[in-house]
C-alpha cells in the first residue's frame, strides 16, 4: 500500500519534472525540474530495492552532473534578453503531441496487457553494493571493461580538445 | 645608470617546506601553545577587562573638550571665533556677548560643540590664543541614546573637570 | 513492533537529528572562545542569565534571539524568490541528513534482537553521505545565483567549483579505504576498526591509511568551506560570498548548516579513520563481559576527574580584577555543586548496577552509552581540530586551491589506491 502511494508520487514527480524541463523557459527552471525528475527516478530505484543504483543515481546524475550544469548556467549568467525567441513554441508542442499520441496509446495498451505482479522486497543482497559488484565483475566483466574504455576515450578526447584550443590562443 | 641589484634569497624552497604539511603542523603547535596556556590560566590573557578596568589615559590624549576658567572662576574664552574658524568639521558654534567683568570685551553666551560632527583633531586647542579650550578631560567614550544630548553646551564644557593635573598637562600637553 | 522497538526507533532518530543541532551551539561557542584563547584574548564571556555565564554559552542564546527577531528581508531585485528561499533550507537539510547513516554505537542486542545504532538503519553507509553532500552544493549555487548580486555569484561559483573538484580526491581516498575495509557500510567499518593490528595497535583507518587520512581531511576541510579553503565567503574579497543578501533566520540556516556540516564531516572522519565509537583496546564484547570492573573503574575515575575539573574551574572562573564579593566565585561554587550532584547521581546508578545487575541487557546498554560518549568525544576533538586550523592558517589563493586539489591531491590519491590495492592483493 505504502509502496503504491510512493510509486505514484515518484512517477508523478518524474513526469512533472520532465514536462517542466521542456516547457519552462528559463534554463535554471529547466535544470531544477530535471533534478526533480532525477531524484524521483532515484526514489523509484529505491522502491525496487536497488540500493546501489539509488545511491549512484543521486551521486552521479543528481549530484555531480546536474551541479556542473547548474554551475555552467550560473557562469553564463543568462538574462531574459539572451533567451531565444520561442513565440510559436506552443504550435510545436501541439504538433508534437498529435504525432506522439498514437505511440503513447499503443504503449499504454501494451502496459495494460502485462500480467499484474506483486512487488516484494527480494533478499538483502539483491541490489546491494556487494550483490551488484559480484554480478558485474563475474558475469558482465567484458561489457563493463568496454564501457570503462569508452569513458576513458571520452576523457582523453576532452583533454585533447581542451588542450588544442589553449595552444592556438 | 647602474642600478643596484640586490638578490634576495627566496625562502620556502626546500622539500620539507614544499610539502607544506610540516610547516602547517609547526604553526599549529605555536597556536596550540597559546591556547593551552590561556585555557589553563586565563589570568594570562592580554586583555583589559574593559568596563570595570579603565585604560590609563595619558595627558596628551585628545578626549572630549572642556573650557577652562581663570582662578576666580570666570571663563577664559574671549569668543574670538578662532576655534570655530579653524574647525575642519564645523562642529563649534559660538555666540558672543558683552563682557562686564573687565577682563576683556567679549565672552561666549553660547558655546555648542556637536560631538557627532567632531573628529577630535585638536585644531581648536591649537588655535586658541587664550588656552581656553582643551581636550584633556580623558573622556574617550562619548555615547548617547539620542542626537540632542550629543550637542554639549557652555555649562557642560565649563563644569567638566580636567583629566590630569596642570603640571602634567604643561609637561606633556600640546 | 513492541514498545521497545518504537522507543529505540524514536531515540535513534532523535539522536540523529538533535545531536548535530546541539553541537551547533557547542561549536559556535568553541569557535568564539577558542578563537579568543588562540589569540590571547578572552572571547565573549559577558552574557549571563541571573549572573550565570556558563563559560560564555549564554552568548549563543543572545545570538539566537537576535537572529530570530531580525527582519527577514527578501530584497526587491530578486526575481526567483522560490530559489532564494529554497537555498538555505537545502543547505541545512542536507547537512543534517548526511549524519543519518553514521553509527554512534555498536549494534545493540536486547532480548535477542539487534538494533543498528544509526538514524536510518540502511547499509548504504558512505554512499549516502556522498549522495546527500552533493545536494548541499545546490543550496550554495542557488543562493549565489538567485541573489542576483556580483559577490553572491562569485561566492557561489567559487564554492561550487571547490566542492566539485575536492569531491574527486575525497572519493578516491575513500576508494582505497574501501579496499581495506571491503565494505561501504559504516557500521561494518566501525566493527573492523575494533580489531588489533599486530596485537597491540588498534586497527584504525589512520594507521592503515596514513596518506589517505591526510587527503581525506584536506578534502573534507574544502568540502565544508572552512579555512584555509573558505574562499566562498572570503570576506576581504567578496564580502560574504553567496549569503550576502540573506538576513535573519535565512542567514542563520546557512550559518547552522555550515556548523552541522562541520560536525558531520568530523563524525565521518572519526568513523572512517579514528575508530568510530570503538574505545581503543576494548572491543564491545570485552566491555560487555567485564562490565562490572569497568563500572568500578568508572566509579573511581569520575570523582577524580570532577575534582580536577573543579580546581581548574575555581582558578579560572573568577573576575580578573579587584571586585568586592566577587559574584563569579559564587557562580563557580554553584557549578561545582551541580557537577558534584551529577557525579553522585551517576555513582548511585552505577552502584545500583553493580549490586542488582544480572544478565547482559543492562551491560549492553551501558556499553552502548559508553561508546556514544566515546564517539561524541572523538568528534568533539575533531571539531576542535577544525577550529584550531581555522585560527592558524591563512586563506589559500584560488589558483593555489585548485592546484592543490587537482595537481597534488588527485595524483596522491591515485598513488594511494595503487599502493593499497597492491598490498591488499599481496596479503590476500
Secondary-structure topology with pairs:
The complex is a heterotrimer of chains A (169), B (174) and C (428).
Chain A: H1 2-23, H2 27-47, H3 51-76, H4 89-113, H5 129-138, H6 141-168
Chain B: H1 15-19, H2 21-40, E1 66-67, H3 82-86, E2 92-98, E3 106-114, H4 123-127, E4 133-134, E5 151-152, H5 154-159, H6 166-172
Chain C: H1 3-38, H2 58-69, H3 81-97, E1 108-110, E2 113-115, H4 126-146, H5 150-181, H6 186-192, E3 196-197, E4 201-202, H7 205-208, H8 210-223, H9 235-238, H10 248-273, H11 284-289, H12 291-316, H13 327-356, H14 360-390, H15 398-427
Antiparallel strand pairs in C: 1-2, 3-4
Main location (chain B): membrane
Domain 4Fe-4S ferredoxin-type (chain B): 65-97, 109-138
Membrane topology (chain B): Peripheral membrane protein
Structure description:
The complex is a heterotrimer of chains A (169), B (174) and C (428). With 169 residues, chain A is mainly alpha-helical. The radius of gyration of chain A is 21 Å and the shape is globular. Chain B is elongated and about 85 Å long. Chain C is 69% helix and 2% strand. In chain C, the strands form 2 sheets. Chain C has a two-stranded antiparallel sheet with strand order 1-2. Chain C has a two-stranded antiparallel sheet with strand order 3-4. At the A-C interface, helix 2 and helix 3 of A face helix 4 and helix 5 of C.
Quick structural summary:
The complex is a heterotrimer of chains A (169), B (174) and C (428). Chain B is α+β, with helices and mostly antiparallel strands.
Task: List unreliable stretches of 5+ residues of chain B.
Answer: none
**Rg of chain A (C-alpha, Å):** 21 Å
Strand content of chain A: under 5%
* Strand portion of chain B: 5-15%
Query: Which CATH-level-2 architecture of the largest domain in chain A?
Result: Up-down Bundle
CATH architecture of the largest domain in chain B: 2-Layer Sandwich
Protein name (chain A): NADH-quinone oxidoreductase subunit J
Main location (chain A): membrane
Keywords (chain A): Cell membrane, Membrane, NAD, Quinone, Transmembrane, Transmembrane helix
GO molecular function (chain A): NADH dehydrogenase (ubiquinone) activity; quinone binding
Amino acid at each position: 500500500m505504502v509502496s503504491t502511494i510512493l510509486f505514484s508520487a515518484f512517477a508523478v514527480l518524474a513526469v512533472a519534472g520532465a514536462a517542466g524541463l521542456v516547457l519552462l523557459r528559463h534554463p535554471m527552471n529547466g535544470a531544477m525540474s530535471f533534478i526533480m525528475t532525477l531524484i524521483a527516478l532515484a526514489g523509484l530505484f529505491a522502491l525496487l530495492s536497488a540500493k546501489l543504483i539509488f545511491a549512484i543515481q543521486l551521486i552521479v546524475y543528481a549530484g555531480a552532473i546536474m551541479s556542473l550544469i547548474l554551475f555552467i548556467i550560473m557562469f553564463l549568467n543568462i538574462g531574459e534578453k539572451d533567451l531565444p525567441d520561442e513565440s510559436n513554441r506552443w504550435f510545436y508542442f501541439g504538433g508534437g503531441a498529435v504525432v506522439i499520441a498514437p505511440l503513447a496509446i499503443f504503449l499504454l495498451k501494451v502496459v495494460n496487457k502485462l500480467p499484474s505482479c506483486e512487488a516484494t522486497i527480494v533478499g538483502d543482497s539483491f541490489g546491494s553494493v556487494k550483490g551488484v559488484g559480484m554480478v558485474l565483475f563475474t558475469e558482465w566483466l567484458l561489457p563493463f571493461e568496454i564501457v570503462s574504455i569508452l569513458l576513458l576515450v571520452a576523457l582523453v578526447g576532452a583533454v585533447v580538445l581542451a588542450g588544442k584550443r589553449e595552444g592556438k590562443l | 645608470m647602474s642600478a643596484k641589484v640586490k638578490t634576495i634569497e627566496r625562502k620556502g624552497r626546500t622539500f620539507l617546506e614544499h610539502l607544506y604539511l610540516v610547516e602547517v603542523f609547526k604553526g599549529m603547535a605555536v597556536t596550540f601553545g597559546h591556547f593551552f596556556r590561556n585555557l589553563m590560566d586565563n589570568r594570562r590573557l592580554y586583555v583589559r577587562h574593559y568596563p570595570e578596568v579603565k585604560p590609563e589615559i595619558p595627558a596628551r590624549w585628545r578626549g572630549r573638550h572642556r573650557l577652562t576658567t581663570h582662578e576666580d572662576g570666570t571663563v577664559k574664552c574671549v569668543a574670538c571665533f578662532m576655534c570655530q574658524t579653524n574647525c575642519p568639521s564645523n562642529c563649534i558654534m559660538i555666540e558672543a556677548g558683552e563682557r562686564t567683568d573687565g577682563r576683556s570685551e567679549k565672552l561666549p553666551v553660547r558655546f555648542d560643540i556637536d560631538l557627532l560632527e567632531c573628529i577630535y583633531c585638536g585644531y581648536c586647542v591649537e588655535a586658541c590664543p587664550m588656552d581656553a579650550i582643551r581636550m584633556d578631560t580623558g573622556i574617550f567614550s562619548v555615547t548617547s541614546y539620542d542626537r540632542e544630548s550629543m550637542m554639549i553646551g557652555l555649562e557642560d564644557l565649563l563644569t567638566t573637570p580636567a583629566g590630569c593635573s596642570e603640571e602634567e598637562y604643561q609637561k606633556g600637553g600640546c | 513492533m513492541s514498545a521497545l522497538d518504537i522507543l529505540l526507533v524514536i531515540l535513534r532518530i532523535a539522536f540523529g537529528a538533535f545531536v548535530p543541532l546541539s553541537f551547533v551551539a557547542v561549536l559556535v561557542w568553541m569557535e568564539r572562545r577558542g578563537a579568543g584563547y588562540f589569540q590571547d584574548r578572552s572571547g565573549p564571556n559577558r552574557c549571563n542569565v541571573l549572573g550565570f555565564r556558563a563559560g560564555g554559552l549564554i552568548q549563543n542564546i543572545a545570538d539566537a534571539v537576535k537572529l530570530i527577531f531580525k527582519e527577514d528581508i527578501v530584497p526587491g531585485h530578486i526575481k526567483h524568490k522560490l530559489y532564494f528561499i529554497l537555498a538555505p533550507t537545502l543547505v541545512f537539510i542536507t547537512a543534517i541528513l548526511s549524519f543519518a547513516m553514521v553509527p554512534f554505537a555498536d549494534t545493540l542486542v536486547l532480548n535477542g534482537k539487534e538494533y543498528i545504532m544509526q538514524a536510518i538503519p540502511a547499509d548504504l553507509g558512505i554512499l549516502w553521505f556522498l549522495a546527500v553532500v552533493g545536494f548541499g552544493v545546490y543550496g550554495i549555487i542557488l543562493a549565489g545565483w538567485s541573489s542576483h548580486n556580483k559577490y553572491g555569484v562569485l561566492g557561489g561559483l567559487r564554492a561550487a567549483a571547490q566542492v566539485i573538484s575536492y569531491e574527486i580526491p575525497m572519493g578516491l581516498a575513500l576508494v582505497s579505504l574501501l579496499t581495506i575495509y571491503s565494505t561501504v557500510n559504516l557500521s561494518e567499518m566501525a566493527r573492523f576498526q575494533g580489531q588489533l593490528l599486530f596485537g597491540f595497535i588498534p586497527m584504525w583507518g589512520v594507521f592503515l591509511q596514513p596518506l589517505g587520512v591526510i587527503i581525506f581531511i584536506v578534502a573534507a576541510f574544502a568540502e565544508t568551506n572552512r579555512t584555509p579553503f573558505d574562499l566562498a565567503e572570503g570576506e576581504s574579497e567578496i564580502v560574504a560570498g553567496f549569503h550576502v543578501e540573506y538576513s535573519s533566520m535565512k542567514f542563520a540556516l546557512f550559518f547552522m548548516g555550515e556548523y552541522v556540516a562541520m560536525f558531520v564531516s568530523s563524525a565521518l572522519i572519526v568513523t572512517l579513520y579514528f575508530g568510530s565509537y570503538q574505545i581503543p583496546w576494548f572491543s564491545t564484547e570485552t566491555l560487555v563481559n567485564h562490565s562490572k570492573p569497568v563500572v568500578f573503574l568508572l566509579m573511581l575515575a569520575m570523582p577524580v576527574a570532577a575534582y580536577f575539573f573543579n580546581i581548574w574551574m575555581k582558578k579560572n572562573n573568577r573576575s580578573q580584577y579587584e571586585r568586592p564579593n566577587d559574584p563569579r566565585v559564587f557562580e563557580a561554587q554553584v557549578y561545582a555543586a551541580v557537577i558534584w550532584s551529577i557525579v553522585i547521581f551517576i555513582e548511585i546508578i552505577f552502584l545500583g548496577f553493580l549490586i542488582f545487575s544480572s544478565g547482559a541487557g543492562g551491560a549492553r546498554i551501558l556499553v552502548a552509552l559508553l561508546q556514544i560518549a566515546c564517539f561524541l568525544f572523538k568528534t568533539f576533538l575533531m571539531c576542535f581540530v577544525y577550529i584550531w586550523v581555522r585560527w592558524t592558517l591563512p586563506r589559500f589563493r584560488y589558483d593555489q586551491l585548485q592546484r592543490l586539489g587537482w595537481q597534488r591531491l588527485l595524483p596522491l590519491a591515485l598513488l594511494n589506491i595503487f599502493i593499497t590495492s597492491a598490498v591488499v592483493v599481496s596479503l590476500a
